[in-house]
Specification:
By secondary structure, the chain is mainly beta. It folds into 2 domains: 79 residues, Elongation Factor Tu (Ef-tu), domain 3, CATH 2.40.30; 88 residues, Beta Barrel (Elongation Factor Tu (Ef-tu), domain 3). The chain contains 3 helices and 12 strands. It is globular and about 60 Å long.
Length: 204
């Protein structure tokens, strides 16, 4: 599990293509890999990946084709920046919202507006997720825990402050970029529970 508070952006240093997956090597920010163990979970652009070693030289992960097809990690190139977060512990301060690292879809950036030092970003989403996306709710964007702004029929807005822009790769987004989206699991659970309860009442 993760908190959605990105600890820094790492740089992709090598991509090794294999038969059914790729191996990613990432240069991490200073001290990010401290006490990291082989098999530990790390959020990479919001994707929960398993560390292949202790990360002292580079972070290394295998990424299967299923993950490549559903996320933006398949579009990563040498030099690409990716958001990184270590998994939470019992003593971790939850500054964002709990995230699993399981991406629902890759959303396309429709529009970016700069206002002084802030940015407003409009992101398109598949209509089937509309029931789980509403203003003031939580959303995970490239592993960042964000509050939803205005929600349209098939797109939503997020509003980014300078701190978020300076620590993450969201400042590098352009119109047409794809971002990994994780919908809040609590929202899904609540919506589905209400739907099932109402359906049960109607069937009586």
């Amino acid at each position: 599990m993760f908190s959605g508070i990105v600890q820094g952006a790492g740089k992709v240093s090598k991509i090794i293509s294999k038969k059914n997956h790729i191996t990613l090597e990432i240069s991490a920010p200073k001290n990010f890999s401290k006490n990291l163990k082989k098999g530990a979970s790390v959020s990479v652009n919001g994707i929960c990946l398993t560390s292949l070693d202790d990360g002292k030289k580079k972070l290394k992960f295998d990424v299967i084709n299923e993950t490549l097809s559903k996320t933006n990690i398949g579009k990563a190139k040498k030099g690409s920046l990716v958001n990184l977060e270590r998994s939470i512990t019992a003593s971790t301060e939850i500054g964002g919202h709990l995230m699993s690292g399981h991406i629902h879809f890759a959303g396309k950036v429709e529009k970016i507006s700069t206002k002084n030092t802030n940015k407003d970003i409009q992101i398109k989403f598949p209509k089937k997720y509309k029931q789980y996306i509403f203003e003031k709710g939580y959303i995970g964007v490239n592993g960042c825990s964000l509050t939803l702004g205005k929600v349209n029929r098939d797109s939503f807005f997020v509003h980014l402050i300078p701190e978020t822009l300076s620590v993450t790769n969201l400042d590098d987004l352009k119109k047409g970029s794809f971002v990994n989206i994780e919908i809040d699991q609590n929202t899904i659970a609540i919506v589905e529970t209400v739907k099932n309860t109402l359906a049960a009442q109607k069937s009586r």
